[in-house]
Amino acid sequence: MAEDLLGTGREVFFCRRPGRGVGVRRSLVSINDLTNEEVEAVFVGADEMASLLRRGGPLDLCRGKILCTLFYEPSTRTRLSFESAMHRLGGAVLSTENARVSSSAAKGETIRDSVRVVQHYADLLVMRHYLDGSTRVAAECARIPVISGGDGTHEHPTQTLCDLYTMRKEKGKVQGLHVALCGDLRYGRTVHSLAYGLARFGARITCVAPPGFQLPAHVRERLLREYGCRIREFSRLDEAIAGEASAPRRRSGDGLYQDLIEQFDVLYLTRVQKERLPRGEGPALAAESFRLSRALLRKAQEDALVLHPLPRVNELDYDVDEDKRAGYFRQASYGVAVRMALTALFLGVVRSGGFAPGPRPRLSVRSVRVRGVRCINDRCVSLSEPDVRPRFVPAAEAGGLRCAYCEVEVRPPTRGRGELFR
Amino acid sequence: MAEDLLGTGREVFFCRRPGRGVGVRRSLVSINDLTNEEVEAVFVGADEMASLLRRGGPLDLCRGKILCTLFYEPSTRTRLSFESAMHRLGGAVLSTENARVSSSAAKGETIRDSVRVVQHYADLLVMRHYLDGSTRVAAECARIPVISGGDGTHEHPTQTLCDLYTMRKEKGKVQGLHVALCGDLRYGRTVHSLAYGLARFGARITCVAPPGFQLPAHVRERLLREYGCRIREFSRLDEAIAGEASAPRRRSGDGLYQDLIEQFDVLYLTRVQKERLPRGEGPALAAESFRLSRALLRKAQEDALVLHPLPRVNELDYDVDEDKRAGYFRQASYGVAVRMALTALFLGVVRSGGFAPGPRPRLSVRSVRVRGVRCINDRCVSLSEPDVRPRFVPAAEAGGLRCAYCEVEVRPPTRGRGELFR
Amino acid sequence: MAEDLLGTGREVFFCRRPGRGVGVRRSLVSINDLTNEEVEAVFVGADEMASLLRRGGPLDLCRGKILCTLFYEPSTRTRLSFESAMHRLGGAVLSTENARVSSSAAKGETIRDSVRVVQHYADLLVMRHYLDGSTRVAAECARIPVISGGDGTHEHPTQTLCDLYTMRKEKGKVQGLHVALCGDLRYGRTVHSLAYGLARFGARITCVAPPGFQLPAHVRERLLREYGCRIREFSRLDEAIAGEASAPRRRSGDGLYQDLIEQFDVLYLTRVQKERLPRGEGPALAAESFRLSRALLRKAQEDALVLHPLPRVNELDYDVDEDKRAGYFRQASYGVAVRMALTALFLGVVRSGGFAPGPRPRLSVRSVRVRGVRCINDRCVSLSEPDVRPRFVPAAEAGGLRCAYCEVEVRPPTRGRGELFR
User: Fold this and answer.
1) Which residues of C are less than 8 Å from B114 in CB distance?
2) Do C104 and A76 touch (CB under 8 A)?
3) Which of B33, B124, B181, C331 has its CA 20 to 30 A from that of B233?
4) Domains parsed from chain C with CATH numbers
5) Which tens digits make up the pLDDT trace of B75-120?
6) What is the pTM of this model?
């Protein structure tokens, strides 16, 4: 039944679905929308795509299919690599590079209205938007699959897939890796999805961020409660690498961290998201505390892997590029193969044992409205869009609520939970 | 001779022209550039395209052809549905989503100069521009077909085709329908072309607009003189629906309107075009007078059809979406099939008995310069572009002149007409 | 061996390379990156492409290949004609029409970083950027061919190829032509590459520019020293055409210019690059001194050819268009064929005897860093990009240095040259 349609001569992973592929009726907004098996399926798919690309020549898997990219924020890697992936697969692309200005959003159209229209023009929608939870809104109302290209400070799941794929490819596996997440961990959406991904695959996480830029509390607590992942935190990269006793928050007596703390397998750097800073907060000084210079890198592990979702600004010196541990350009180069696999899987033109074609139960399915409660996150889509109403899912703690869009945790007013929900 | 090349198994409407299709050497700037038979030909074509789309798979009708979209104003539906149509037909697309900033217009190039260059790069040009009559300028100088995607406050003919197609599809036919045009009828280009289309196909029109936003006098008079269509006017939607006696301008003794005025078959809503308002005019209050709420809709006819060209802002409540009479998202969904038919017809890759491939006599062909007369419309392209000179055609009234570009009527100075023309 | 794969039935110029084409590993940033034989090869290729276009139908030469256009400045002709060329060749396009705003450049990414990423998404990069020498930076770090679509005030080599192709097509050959370069010769990049091209092919050059807009000294000196081309200069076009004795800088005793100076074969006009003027310099007045009106054109040679890279602003009257000598729209129309030939050659899908597929020794290969010397050109990429360090090549004069990026000449401090270089 499973034919070697891609002709890779390897164990058949992909086979064209009977008849033409149909959209799989599911979306990718959070890395948690995929199971671990599905993440693996994407990686196996990416390997196949990469070997097809090396052999050159056009593929026709997506002939007749249309990808629409709708970007409300600047992008180089995400938009162009998705579009490149679709072209390599033989499909067509509708592109909007600056939807904030050149789409009907400029005339006041809501996300829901735009998406309910655009879904008739394409078979797959990749969207980036500046509001947290915005791409969840799109996924909820679209009849075609929606893949998030990043939503505000919330998540960036396809970047995380590229990150994990890079670690798996260059380090063999993600499990057991010790990863330092450095930089603006508060506003950087890539590290939020990556932290979940790392925790789920059994990596250890150390966070390095100056005061004001630490991982949001709701992310840290969710890592602990849902995935049993306890993170260690430093405020300066040199202290994290050197393991200095003066490092604040260092819990030196903790049994989990008996080995030398400078033994990072992966240094994952991110820039200060200056476009998301509240007015008055200066980004320049902050970056100094986690800047990776060639000198500092000398103190790191011999076979450490330096990653960065890019663009970098001043937290990663240009002369680090020449160090063999610099992996960030390879990381970017894997984007096309990973996104080819995603595109083919979500369009349903290939299938994989690990990837469920039907819709999965989503948080939003079980989400409810709660009397008198609105999200506390200023950037949440539920506060800005007139046609989105606050919805919540129960968080792990008793009485806790999590916004169904931006996933920030909200404490409901002190009343019985029964009377709040409706 | 007429082969069933599309394989629809129905009465053959389209057949590929002998040899490869050649541009039909005509353009679509006003809905009045098409005869009623040609509008019907587009609709039959759209039906065929829709059935082809449902059967899935790529079409190759436009293989090797290039569509160029040149948009000087924001767009979601028009640009993306045209581009989607071209991709579905197997052609390629050159796209400029923000030509005001990223084309040579930013350096001061005129429309004529830009079009005379772009015509060498594509086979069909779809253009949107902020000046009234601008797309007529493009059509005049291009050797490839030009289709307007909207020009200032003048017209938006392909939207009108989608609107009429929706009414025909959901109501059986346009003739005899009673349509309420509501909202900003002054600056909204879609209602201008729609009013002509409705009048020509024998619909009845009621206009609902607050003071300052009524249908321009030259449109109203042309409807009457050229198509014998007398419109009734209200300033508030609730009054129009309720048929209150207090409604201003209501001519209750008029034989034409003996039936209950709340019997609207179609409620066509439009937003306030706030980007076209003179400074100081506030849009928010105006919209209240024609806002369609769910409560108000309860009073309307059971099988009324609510349409809107979208985007909506605050004149159409979001909870109306759940009413079965809400037809605006279906209206948007028909855009691809209608624009596939238009693209195929104007590229000449299909032909239809009803659609004349050769150039039709155009207003502009017979237009003349008139000594000392310039257009009185501030937004007219003839006042802004240094290489466009005012031209006019005789309007119906003796001595009347109509601008050949924006079609606003101008009264010439009181002299003999003979000495004015040259 | 050389098959008539394009089926033009003429002496075979192109033949598909064995196996699939591979990028030729060279770039086009300056017209001086091509030898005269290679320029001729592009022209022969353009002739073939034009005849293929006339016969209609899609070509498949670039099927499966991807062109990425990355434009940091507005463009109509260059971007759209390259994209059209790629579509006509059967390839796909990734487009960024406003990279300054909608790419990661908006977040502070350097050119090098962007290019090192984008090279993984496409097979050929066409880039326009506002900094002088920027496209050289891209070409240096990319593993795919980079073609400049214009870099600041430096050069615009593909425009020059179109210009020379037009002269060759309409005048038979470039050698011996007398060309007047008029307008903003200081900030206009097209005239800089064109002047080199004309000099190398043996044309005579007269420059017409008002004070403050003359050809930069380093270009004028290089023309003389490297190509033996002495230019004559006027400050007003009417004087140049009329040959008035009052013309400043006129060297009337010069043996080279004994014939009547009004005998221009080509009048090449350019607009004032007002976006590059230092604040306070007014462009309007300047343009008057080289404005070509129909009246002035009457005094020019009967078979003169008027060219302009377009867009024009106010230096070329619109009524000149009707004169048979107006060649600028034909000039623009040749852009697709010329860029099809360039695309096919640089992607390596065709080959030509005259065009070397391998990398050529480049200035930058031999460039060196010089202690304490930085470029003196405020617009040079080496002063703005944190990851570009100043590099120089020896200029003709003893001790002279030329910036490896913007090619402006720099005088090193008065010390021995040996101790400067490192």
Assistant:
1) 76, 311
2) yes
3) B33
4) 31-156+334-347 (3.40.50.1370), 157-333 (3.40.50.1370), 362-422 (2.30.30)
5) 999 999 999 999 999 999 999 999 999 999 999 999 999 999 999 9
6) 0.91
